[in-house]
Automatic annotation (TrEMBL):
Location of the XdhC Rossmann domain: 172-314
Protein name per its UniProtKB record: XdhC family protein
InterPro entries according to UniProt: MoCofactor_Util/Proc (IPR052698), XdhC_CoxI (IPR003777), XdhC_Rossmann_dom (IPR027051)
Domain XdhC- CoxI residues, every copy: 15-67
Source organism, top-level taxon: Bacteria
N-terminal signal peptide: none
The organism's taxonomic lineage, starting at the top: Bacteria, Pseudomonadati, Pseudomonadota, Gammaproteobacteria, Oceanospirillales
Length: 326
């Protein structure tokens, strides 16, 4: 299973290739509790099929009903859901009690639509980081270079332009199959990561079954060296086997992966650092990129607890939080 953003855009491309008009819906802003963050997508076909989500289901149902009634025939519509003071959406109260602003774009069956969606997909695949600009008055859409970190959605009320920051979909590469791998993969899928597990043992790969996870029967280092990592990739080695773990680390530090970690005690980690410096050809700077021991210090004992510590540390690093930051 791919990251939900990629699924949304790939399905949109499939519909556009069939010359179908479609509606791309984006969460612009949230107020109070909300199940989906700004930037979340849903795409709907002219027959009412959809993929993605904006809420727990109530907003999606309302949108489909309105679309069937002939609404949203303009290039751009902005809807507010959950606000009792807004006449347009007052009849729908969100179960979480929050408020959603949703941008609805009607994308006609034209070559320009397909070209635009293809650029979106390229950004999610890691080929390019861009800002997607949408003029709310004219419906004009174009891309500019993405300048750096920041909020996923920026709404400039004065200019009437919405900017959406697009970056690669989050990916987790798990190097090696061990008792930790399955719970780690399951946590990552729940968190919205695209997850790939690599191990050279074909029998172990055949037995590994976590819904939504791709399994590849090859050395993780080979997969990583083939260009599997982009800037939104985390790589974790979880086997205690240096033939798998060390090689994966040697290749991973040559990539833009934002998190690279390997399991082991402090003593094991110190020994690994020495091996990587001595015979692995890595510099001290490269070794210092490695999170080892991996994970937050939660006192974890069981495989599930260790997996939780690993994923918690990955999320911490992704959000740029110091390990002791409140």
């Amino acid at each position: 299973m791919q990251h939900l953003d990629r699924q949304v855009i790939e399905q949109a491309i499939a519909w556009a290739q069939k010359s179908e008009t479609l509606w791309l819906c984006t969460v612009l802003a949230t107020f109070g509790s909300s199940p989906r963050a700004p930037g979340s997508w849903m795409v709907v076909s002219q027959t009412g099929q959809f993929i993605g989500s904006l809420s727990g289901g109530c907003v999606e149902e309302d949108f489909i009903q309105r679309l069937g009634a002939g609404e949203f025939d303009q290039p751009i519509t902005v809807m507010r859901y959950g606000d009792p003071n807004d006449a347009q959406g007052a009849h729908l109260a969100l179960p979480c009690g929050g408020i959603l602003d949703v941008l609805i774009e009607r994308l006609p069956a034209e070559p320009e639509t397909l070209e635009h969606l293809t650029t979106l997909l390229a950004a999610l695949q890691g080929h390019r980081r861009v800002l997607r600009n949408v003029h709310l008055s004219s419906g004009e859409r174009y891309f500019t270079d993405e300048p750096g970190l920041g909020p996923r959605v920026i709404h400039d009320a004065e200019s009437g332009i919405v900017q959406m920051r697009l970056a690669p979909a989050r990916r987790l590469i798990i190097a090696g199959i061990s008792p930790i791998s399955a719970p780690c993969a399951a946590f990552a899928v729940t968190l919205g990561f695209e997850v790939i597990v690599c191990d050279p043992d074909e029998a172990a790969c055949e037995d590994f079954s976590v819904p939504g996870v791709a399994v590849k029967a090859l050395l993780p280092s080979v997969y990583i060296a083939a260009g599997a990592c982009h800037s939104a990739t985390a790589v974790v080695a979880l086997t205690h086997d240096p033939r798998i773990d060390d090689l994966a680390m040697i290749e991973a530090v040559r990539t833009p992966a934002f998190y690279i970690g390997v399991m082991g005690s402090r003593r094991t980690s110190a020994a690994r650092a020495g091996r990587l410096l001595r015979s692995g050809g890595l510099s001290e700077k490269e070794v210092n990129r490695l999170h080892m021991p991996i994970g937050l210090a939660l006192g974890s004992k069981t495989p599930a607890e260790i997996a939780l510590a690993v994923m918690a540390d990955i999320v911490r690093v992704q959000h740029g939080r110091a390990i002791n930051e409140l």
